[in-house]
Amino acid sequence: MNKARTNPLNAFAMHGALILYTLIALFPVFVILINSFKTRKAIFREPLALPDADSFSMIGYQTALKQGDFFLYFQNSLIVTVASLALVLLFGAMAAYALSEYRFKGNTLMGLYLALGIMIPIRIGTVAILEMMVATGLVNTLWALILVYTAQGLPLAVFILSEFMKQVSDDLKNAGRIDGLSEYTIFFRLVLPLVRPAMATVAVFNMIPIWNDLWFPLILAPAEETKTLTLGSQVFIGQFVTDWNAVLSALSMAILPVLILYVIFSRQLIRGITSGAVK
Amino acid sequence: MTKPRVRWHIAVFLAPAVLIYSAVMIFPLFNTLRLALYSRVDQERIFTGLDNFRTLFFDPIWAEQFWNALGNNFWFFLVHMLVQNPIGIALAAILSHPRLRFAALYRSAIFIPTILSFVIIGFAWKLILSPIWGIAPSMLDAVGLKSLFAPWLGKEEYALTTLALISVWQFVGIPMMLIYAALLSIPEEILEAGEIDGITGLAAFWKIKLPLILPSIGIISILTFVGNFNAFDLIYASQGALAGPDYSTDILGTFMYRTFFGFQLQLGDPHMGSAIAGAMFAIILVGVCIYLFGIQTRMRRYQL
Fold it and tell me: For this UniProt entry, which segments traverse the membrane (chain B) (predicted)?
């Protein structure tokens, strides 16, 4: 056995470093969450203490829920994220299948064309996107956001999914063809279920940037009824800067849904990233 | 012989993705570049060629803002490259150690800031660093360094670096995960062969693992570059569209937003906004080309 690999001192140092960094990573989130449950006095007197019977207060949440329509914001974010993900996955998988399964003229060129968007951020085209949304009357609708996020997510989705679809066995598809299944049935019934893990990877990759985006909601859908949670909390906090209870509660309300989703999906996410989907 | 029939299903499979992608991404991209060549004069859009770019680069008022934003953006990028990526690599190297316990737990915890939005991060740090609340000064006091405290986000000379470090804190998870994946894919035999030759521990990292993960470091660098040069959210959320104090945290994203959308007394100008977008496009394109042709093709890849 090798000494360096089992040295207890080494293990101690490694855990020390990791614990230190974990504390640095979690500290701000922790401070925000505990202080959102405290009275104003307690927030300032002992910012690092846990809320107890004396200092416990939900006043911040009451203000935030009364003044800002957080349920609506949350609902908007949810609609935009889920709809964009569904479109990215469906259309991305269809295009990936066409590129990986069939040989046709311009296949490589089409692949390259679709891959352009992986490196070039869609924000560069904002001016013209806004102009187009104004012209089509989609400004201040959730559709504007859904379309933009779908376009933004497609390049990487096509790229990752076509890598995976190349691994689906030809025999299976040919067996389907001999049985007289149409190309569409083969895709939806045979191929899609087999690339489900890859689809999940694409979904988690796209979910976080869509949910957290501030730029496009700010520019394309800033109206009260189409605000997403990210924009909604930004505006709310901007208005209530001096009401620390409300600000801390609004921040916590924005953190909690993401944190819960993360706890549920973290294994999928980490497996997705480390499975080498991004090479 | 009959002509090969048209395979419509290929078109059907491709159409939705290609249509949306072309209409919402590629077309606006080029349309924005085209709009940069126009100006609005008396409610009318007229073609002015490269005038907007001339204004942007040489007109004293515009040029000062532009070069300031560009310089800040490079500093922002540099801080990420020098702090975020080394920390990410170090964490990944520790995490990938074969006999480390709780690795999954550490990994998930360190990744948490990455999943939170810039708005949350920006405000959370603003509160923590705020001299009113006093968490940062009292913590420094506890270790006897209170004299080091300054309202970092409010001082011109520190604000940008502070924001860059906040962004580093948030995104360390990404290089960590990607490098971690690369390290796991290194076959055990190679490391064992090294051990037999007496290369272990840190030496194994520098001499065996690091050369093998260089391609991943290249990818991370270009991702960081693209991400930093279209960053906007964090600075907007914590410093506002004016990127204060006195534009010291202004980067290309906030500059473009202010120009294109207008802010307070300044009227929005889509054409100048497009010109800035054009400049950003050029910078990102140059960066991506340097990576693709200058770095990626020259990097030695090892068959594993």
Answer: 12-30, 74-96, 108-128, 158-183, 212-232, 275-294
